Every structure is written in C-alpha cells, then in structure tokens.
Amino acid sequence: MNKLAISIYSRYQQIFDENYQLPENAYRGGDIVQFASAFHEKYQDQYKNAEYTPEVEDLFREFGREYALMNINKDLKRFGVW
After folding, report:
1. CA nearest neighbour of 8 among 36, 42, 45
2. I want to staple 26 with a disulfide (CB 3.0 to 4.6 A). Which of 5, 22, 32, 53 is the partner?
3. What does the radius of gyration of the chain's CA atoms come to, in whole angstroms?
4. For residues 16 and 36, is the Cβ–Cβ distance under 8 A?
5. pTM (global) more than 0.85
6. How many domains does the chain have?
7. CB of 61 within 8 A of CB of 5?
8. InterPro entries, alphabetically (predicted)?
9. Which pLDDT does position 1 carry in this prediction?
10. What is the pLDDT of residue 82?
11. Sign of the torsion angle spanned by Cα atoms 44, 45, 49, 51
C-alpha cells in the first residue's frame, strides 16, 4: 500500500508539474493516473507541492484503498456478483 500511496502522490504532483519525477519504485500503469485525477477532483490543489510526510502518505494510502475498493465493487455489481 505504501507503493500505491507514493504512486498516487507522484501522479498528483504531475498534474501541476509535468516534469515531476516518478520515484523508481512507483507504479507506472495508467490506472494510477485515474487515481490521481480522482484525488485532484476531491482535494483540488490542497496538497500541491506538499512534503511527503507520514501524514500525507497515510492520506494518499487511504484514498487509494477506498478508490480501489469502490472500483472493485462497481465491477462486481456490473457482473451481477455483488
């Protein structure tokens, strides 16, 4: 989950600065861009240039977990499993 948090954080920072470098251990998939976009919709620029403190990491981790579960539940409902 820490890798998810830093990945969302980094993609979120790229919304404001396209030259922001992804950490080497970050997820590279396009789905992370969607996570970051959703985070931006919710928080706007509130965490733009925020230092990556343990508190900020917790926020991005929890957001990522909730967003992933929301999407999984939507898929399960769509397939008639849930």
Report:
1. 36
2. 22
3. 13
4. no
5. yes
6. 1
7. yes
8. Rossmann-like_a/b/a_fold
9. 87
10. 66
11. negative
Length of the chain: 82
Element spanning 62, H or E: helix 54-78
Write out the residue range of the structural domain in which residue 71 sits.
2-78
SS3 sequence of 5-59: HHHHHHHHHHHHCCCCCCCCCCCCCHHHHHHHHHHHHHHCCCCCCCCCCHHHHHH
The two tokens of residue 52 are: 């990556």
**Residue 34 amino acid letter:** Q
Query: How far is Cα 23 from Cα 37, in angstroms, rounded to an integer?
Result: 18
Tell me the three state secondary structure of residue 80. coil
pLDDT along the chain (82 residues), means of 10: 96 98 94 98 98 98 97 90 74
